[in-house]
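Sequence in, structure out. Go.
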Amino acid sequence: MNTETIYLAGGCFWGMQKFFDQFDGVLRTEVGYANGPDKAPTYQDVCQDSGHAETLRIDYDPGKITLTQLLDYYFMVIDPLSVNQQGHDRGIQYRTGIYYTDDGLLPEIEAVYQREEAKAGAKLAVELEPLHNFFSAEEYHQKYLEKNPGGYCHIPSSFFHIQ
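Output:
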């Protein structure tokens, strides 16, 4: 099986994980902190502006779900023009970003990004850059909305069952 990995920052990572876990072809997800200083942060550090973004690592089978499809879903649940905010969550850790480790994925990412920018009619606030680092979040954050179904998320709960 061929496996690819993409990292998506889309505000609160709890909802991002629950949202992407529903799709066939998504093999594994993990929430963590990305593209901040090279020191592994705690959740408290991130909440105090460590510079990391709450980010979802997605390992997927491109034979079952394409990167374009994943990115289309991503843009469905974020406000791509909002700077450091999604829903009621505000701060640098809630910025949006598409982070990659394989330069071969960049043309496909850029095509979707440019299409979304044209649709928005404005420059997107979504970072598009290589992954500099990724630190796994504490265990209690993994699959948080599965463990705590009443937890807050900017993504409407109806979106957790679209497939």
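Check: The domain at 4-161 is CATH 3.30.1060.10 (Peptide Methionine Sulfoxide Reductase; Chain A). The chain has five helices and eight strands.
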